[in-house]
Design goal:
By secondary structure, this protein is α/β, with parallel strands linked by helices. It contains eleven helices and five strands, in the order βααααααβαβααβαβα. It has two domains: 123 residues, 3-Layer(aba) Sandwich (Rossmann fold); 65 residues. 31% of the residues are buried. It comes from Novosphingobium mangrovi (ex Huang et al. 2023).
């Protein structure tokens, strides 16, 4: 394998667990109603608009108009988003810390809405180990758009062929690969550790 100088992480489902249903299962007792709500109101496609930089208040007001009678639940998306993050992905934080100890430059590219990111980041010291983090909501660009990877190259100061991009989403991985990045399709920390060891980034 050619040399990798830096590792670039996705955040959700690579470093932290993320599941919108985790929040709303606390608020909706009936399983069938929960299934309907997640499939029709609190969809990934709707949430993705906020990741891409759309205004939260505008999104919430529009959704309430589209689905009357669910105001409290839709408000919970805006006020309780951190409850969609139940914990860390097992083993991933340890890998980040070991890479940092070995002085491997660390970066991240995350599809994350700006206000939610600021709230989350304020209480997560792991990201103090990262040299820079490209946040989609700040940039109004989302993975797998090639432009967010080009922006990351300019910001991080490493060529694509010198960086390993780690993401759980196949479309994001393939977009980075097409731009010349080294890639790792994340499934679990054990497989990532093996890949990093093979690349001599971990002992």
């Amino acid at each position: 394998m050619s040399a990798v100088d830096a590792v670039v992480f996705d955040v959700g489902r690579v470093l932290v667990q993320w599941d919108m249903r985790h929040l709303f299962a606390r608020l909706i007792d009936d399983p069938e109603r929960l299934d309907w709500f997640m499939a029709n109101v609190m969809t990934d496609e709707w949430h993705f608009q906020h990741d891409a930089g759309r205004d939260l208040d505008e999104m919430v007001a529009e959704r309430k108009a589209q689905f009357p009678g669910h105001d409290d639940l839709i408000d919970a998306y805006a006020t309780r988003f951190l409850e969609t993050i139940p914990g860390n992905v097992p083993g991933s934080h340890e890998i980040v810390r070991e890479l940092a100890q070995r002085q491997v430059p660390l970066f991240a590219i995350t599809n994350f809405a700006s206000p939610f990111w600021r709230e989350f980041r304020a209480n997560e010291p792991l990201f103090d180990l990262f040299g820079d983090i490209v946040v989609s909501g700040d940039e109004k660009l989302v993975k797998p758009d090639p432009r967010i990877f080009d922006l990351a190259v300019r910001r991080f100061g490493h060529e694509p062929g010198a960086m390993l991009f780690v993401d759980d989403n196949v479309a994001n991985v393939e977009a980075a690969r097409a731009l010349g990045w080294h890639v790792h399709h994340f499934t679990d920390a054990g497989a990532l550790r093996t890949d990093l060891t093979n690349r001599q980034l971990l002992g």
